[in-house]
Structure formats: C-alpha cells, structure tokens
Amino acid sequence: MAKKRRFIYIKERVWKKLQGWKEKLLSQARREVLIKSVIQTIPTYTMSCFKLPKGLIQEIEVLIRKFWWGYSGAARKVHWVSRERLCEAKEVGGMGFKDIENLNNAFLAKQVWRMMNNIDSLCFRVFKARFFLSCSILDVEEKASGSYVWKSILSARDVIRKGMAWRIGDGQTMRIKEDN
Q1: Burial of 101 (C-beta count, 10 Å sphere; 0-12/13-18/19+)
Q2: With pLDDT > 90 as the criterion, what percentage of the chain qualifies?
Q3: Alpha-helix runs per DSSP H in 87-146
C-alpha cells in the first residue's frame, strides 16, 4: 500500500486529464488519439525507473477503459470488447492500446540492457559497486536490502533472458563448466 501511495500522483494526473476532456463531445477516433498520445505516455518516465504496483496499473487501465467506452457518472456502459483485445495490434483486429504492465517491464528491461552494454556509464558503475561486484547483472541474486530502483530493474531481467542470444565471439568471457 505504501508503494501505491508513492505513485498515486500518476493516477491523479491521468484522472485530471480525463476530466478535462468532454468525452461525450469526442468521437471514438479522437478518444483513441488522446488515450495513445497523452494518457498512456504520462507514466513513461516513472516506468523507466520503477516497477509500478499492479493495483495502480489496474486502476489506470480502468480509467482508460471507462474513458474509451464513454463512462459517465453512475451509469455503467457495456464494454463490448475485452481489455486484452483492445491491447492487441490493429493489424490483428485490436485497437493498439499499450498494456501498461508490459510497457513497464519493457522500460525496465531497457535499463538492464543499458547496464549490460554501457559498462562505462555512471549508473552501471554505481550499481555494480553496490549490488553485483563479482558477477554479471544477469547472475546477481536479489537481496532484501536493495533499493526499490534496484529491485525494479532486477524484476525485468527475465524479459532480457527470454529474448537474448549469446555468441561465443573471441571466447574470453566463456566459462567452460557453467555456460551451455
């Protein structure tokens, strides 16, 4: 609950933007543009550093869906298509909305990728000295004493692992017994 309270300003900014627009006066096409270009971009900077709590992500997605379907006050509108279908690409029949949780994981995975490839950066040197002095970022074990930023970055390592291919190259970094 404390983590959710720290990021509540994101939900408030989304709500404030949605309240400013009169959804009754906007066509579906205009709502789509506003959702994609404004609402889904509000949390991007924060998501590149922190793993947002699932509850907050769900609340933001509920606000987006209510705006999309034309929610007004106490009257409930029928959601004719599931959230998953709205998040599918337009080429396969969806609306192309971003799944906020997947976007959050992608941004954090980008941080892992940067740490793996930019070993001269200040960010890499600070985290290396503090959390993974004798191993790779992919091999470090999560500790309870780490900061929330560090834990957030570690949560995205699996995204990198799933899409990563390893090449032997010159053989300098290969460990005969440990590497497959």
Answers
A1: middle
A2: 22
A3: 100-117, 122-131
